[in-house]
Each structure stands twice: as C-alpha cells, then as structure tokens.
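Exam review. A common question shows you a sequence with its structure tokens and asks you to describe the fold in words. Practice with the pair below. Do the first one on your own.
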Amino acid sequence: MVRGMAKKRSKRTGGRPGGGRDPRAVFIDRVANIFDVPPAEAEALASTPLKQSIRVNTLSTRPRADIEADLAALGVERAPIAWAPDCFHLHSPKALVSESALFANGDVYIQNAASFIPPLALDARPGQRILDLCAAPGGKSAHIAAITNNTARLWLNDGIPARIAKLEEVIGLLGVNAETITTHPAQYADKFIEAAFDRILIDAQCTGEGMVDLSRAGALRYWSLERIRKYSRLQQRMLMSAWKLLKPGGLLVYSTCTFAPEENEAPVSHLVKHRDDADLEPIPLDVPGETPGRTNWEGANYEPALTHAMRIRPSEFLEGFFTARIRKAAD
C-alpha cells in the first residue's frame, strides 16, 4: 500500500523539471547558466516583451519606391537593420502594418528579426536547389526566394500536414515560386526525398524558450526538461537525415528559437562528430547581442568549432535564437 502511494505521488510530480522544483526557478537557473549571467538578469532576459520587424518583399510586383511611400503615408516608424537588407525594426504598433493593404497584398511581411538570420546565413544563390525542411509558415522560405530573385529551385517541406495550408497561403501571397511542396517527416527526410541539394535549411521544431515571456501568466505551461530531451532526439535525427541529402560542397543551416544546449549545440555536435565531411563555419553577420555557441553544458563536451555558431540573447527586437552553419566537404 505504501509503495502504491509513493508510485502515485511520483507520477504526479514526475513531469516537473528539476525533481519537483518550481519550473520557473529551474528555467531561470538554466538561462542564467547558459548565458553566464546572474539569475536576476536571466529573469529579465526572459521577461522582455518583443517588438516585431518587417521585411519589404522584393518579389512584389509593385515598385519599391511605392511601397516605401505607402509605409510613410501610414506613418509607420521604422529603422533599417544594418545586417539585414530590406528589413526594418518596427517602432510603430504592429497593427499599423498588419491591418494595412501593404500586408494583405504581400508587399511587406512581419517577423521577429531573429528569423532573418537563417536565410541570410544560408548564402543562397540563384539557380541552386534548396530544401527548406521545416518550412511552415513560410516566412524564411519567402526570404530565400527573395534573396535568389525567385530563381532558386525551392523544395519546401513540413512534417506537420496541418501547417501546409498556411505555408501555401504565405508563399502564394508573397509571390514565391516553389518547385515542390511535401509533408514528409523531417527526421526521415532521406527515406522519402530522392534529390540532392546545394543548400538545406532546418529551422527545427523546438521548445521555443526564446519566445518565452515570464511576465505573462502560464508562460511555462508546456515547458519541461522532458520536452527538451524529446526535441533533442528529434533534432538529432533531422540533422543526420538531412545531411544525406546535401551535395558535397553544400551548406546546411540549422536554427531554433530556443536556449537549450540539448536542442542546439548537442545535435549539431553529434552530426559533426559522426560525419567526417561536416565542418562548422562562422556566420558572416554582425548581429547585436550575438554570443558564440557553447562547447560544454552540464558535463557534456561539444565540438570546439561550435564557437562559430551564433546564439542570440533576447532583446527589444530579437527573440532568443540559435543558428549554426555547416559545410559538407567537396569531393
């Protein structure tokens, strides 16, 4: 009887991170350790309301000058982002843009500025065959299309069928030419996709810690250490599968909007350790608030070259983010 009661109690608390500790305290401690800051600063980092940014859609059929004039006429206050061409931090309320004809017609697109990093890090070129493995809702796919002036051969995939409708809506609105759209599970991509790619983007499913706002009630409702471990295993399989689809000399960019090294450095380190043809490269972007990737975490040692990866600390316009750029050796 006593054993049964103990088992039942364990089942109730087993999902709580840190052996029954308050999830908020565990979360703050982890953020503090990841960024090497005091807990009070970590709590502030994870309690910052995020402002949005916009990207002017260069695939729009309207002249750029007309789009800029319409933004001015609406009174949209914005500041150019030095490291992201055609992108602006939004100082006006988001609704001023989201409720405008400019947004409804696909002349501009609203994103968090951190989402501009992966498409720029990918170094996409016209005519290349490019796979966006976790493409929905489509903002990064559209950015890649704009960078290549709609001449890349885009294969857009998302493993969650319910998200495909939104993906098709966004790329249709933004005038993206997609050669192929599929719904294959990303962790088994090589089992379904019989093609080789010059560039692959994996903006992986994750726990989304970088978007957490602790000032909001229920901010950690779905967060747990078990979810981190679950996603880590999934992300590792995604990387290993996608690597088989990358051409020699090609680039793979891996990104998440989370803090956890288990979801960031760990799966990337696993790939590099197990594939002799995988090399981490620096990301040639000067993003405010960037810090190097970690080379260790809670007793685990990662590839030293992970210092080339880019971590983003949350700030006014940037959610917490991680990006790594990996080159496959040429034949």
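Now try the second one, then compare your answer with the model answer below.
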Amino acid sequence: MPPMKLSRRQLLCLGALELSGLARVAVAQTDWPRQPIRLVIPLAPGGAADVAARHLGAQMHKLLGQPVVVESKPGADGVLAMADVARSKPDGYTIGLATATGLSYAPNIRKSLPYDVLKDFTPLSSFVTFTFFLMVHKSVPGKDLAEVVAHLKANPGKYAYGASSSMAILATEQLMADAGLDLVRAQYKGEGPMVADLFSGRVQIAWATPAVLPALQKDGNTRAVAVLLPERSPLLPDVPTLAQSGQALVNVSPWGGMVAPANTPKPVVEALSKALREAMTAPDLLSQAGSNGLIVRASTPQEFGDFLRQQKSAWGAAIKLAKLPVEQ
C-alpha cells in the first residue's frame, strides 16, 4: 500500500491537535495543586518525627492552599509506607516521608522489596536527622570517649553494648571496628528495656535518643560521651561529636526525607521541593523538632538523590561489617 498523503489542511489540523495536547499537559502541570496532598509516613502517630511531619504538612497547606493529609503506615521496616508511595500515581498528590530504615536498611537486609530505591522514587528534599547520644554506664571509667575507648580496648569481651534499632547496631559496630573494640551485643525489641538494662549496668554502653535522656541521666548512673551528628546538639552542647572525640565519623546516618513516586512531572517536583524547603524554615516547626532532637535540614532534589545513593551503599557496608543476617 502506498504511503498515505496528507493535505496541508490535514497537517495543520494534526499540528494544532498536538500543540493542544502539549498545552493541556503544561496546564495540568502548572495548575498544581488542585486537590489535597497525601503525605504517607512510616511511623506510628505521636512520635517526634510524626509530629514534625504534621507541622510540615500544616506549613505546606499555608503555602500551597491545599490541605496535606497525613496517613500513618507503620511496620515492616517502613516498607509498607514506601510501597504505597511507589505505586501511587505520579501526579504530585502523594508524597512520602522516607527514612533510613525503609530506603537504606531494608534494601540491604531483605531478599526482595516491592520497590527499587533508586528507580521507583523521585527525591524532593532531605528533612530531618535523628539525634543519638552514646551513653556510658558509671561502671566504665573515663572522662571522655577517648578514655572510655582505651578502657574498653584493654578489657576485650568484658563489656556489653545495648541496641534497640538497626541504627544503633550499625553505629556501634562501625565504632568497634574503627577503635578495635570487642564488645558483646545485647539486642532489644524496644528502647525501654534497653534503657532499664543500661541504667542498672547490665549493659554498659548504648546509643540512646533524646526521649530517654532524663531517665538515663537520673542520679548520674550514665553519662553522654558523644553525639551521632556532624555537629554538636543544642540539647547537650557540651557533648562532642565522634570526630571531635578523635574517632572516625560513623557514616550511616539516621535520616528522614521527602520523596514522590517516580516519573512525577518536573514542574510539580520543583513546586513541591520549593514548598517543602520554605515550610522547613517555619519557627514553630524548627522549635518543636529541635526540642525532640530532630535536626531539620532541607536540600535540593539532586542533593537528596545523591545522599540516598550514598546511604544505601554505606548501610550495605555496615550491615556486612556487623554480620547481620540477610534474607537468602
């Protein structure tokens, strides 16, 4: 069959239709948002990060003129929430609070996931870094981390560390490898039981969140010797970082950041990222987050994407170092 020839009028009509379609796409992209935005978070209601995310949503409502509806989907190392975001329509009306557990830990520990960390999400911005203090029981001598490490190194296998999260295990194992320590691991299902054993001296060293500091510091039973942050925490400004204490910086980070489904249109990504970064400057958000040990720090989508790749690799190396069981 010979190729079909189109008249000049038909070609003009087709061109008009194509331009009309492009115009509709452009309008659809720039007319965002026209409905409420869903923010999926992998945490139970009431925690520090959950409250911070709700503050963030309220600020975005003011900026965008549309409500941000928070949906909590805790469980399965954050996989449930991240799977929801990954399979959502990429139209800018579903975003998620991603955490290190769901996008750095789970991909390195699980045989299969319902999403690909680097292919199924569009990075929007970093959000928070969680604060962890290295607490030491009074039975371990040393006025600072260097002296504590020296004592532990001189007594291999005689002391135990407590850990109630993958973050705590990996950070301690990296510290042990760098300093040449031999500590017994005691693993807990929650921070409460770990705090009780650290306070009583059943374990002698552990990473702890700001929420349990009052209980741990009661009667001077434990003391903080380092903080797992790039800079000192305003909660305990006299406590140095690992680097300031002469130890190599642990490169697994307890982070949280914002993502959208893959293939979200670029204009919508730019608008979302801009709104997120502006919302993160709100004084009430910064005050609430800071009082709970959350360091708020925004970024560009490119910066957060680079960070996601770096952390996935860092957590993988740390998991091998800690010899954590990986699904086969």
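Model answer, second protein: DSSP finds eleven helices and eleven strands in the chain. Residues 8-30 form the longest helix (23 residues). Full marks require stating both points clearly.
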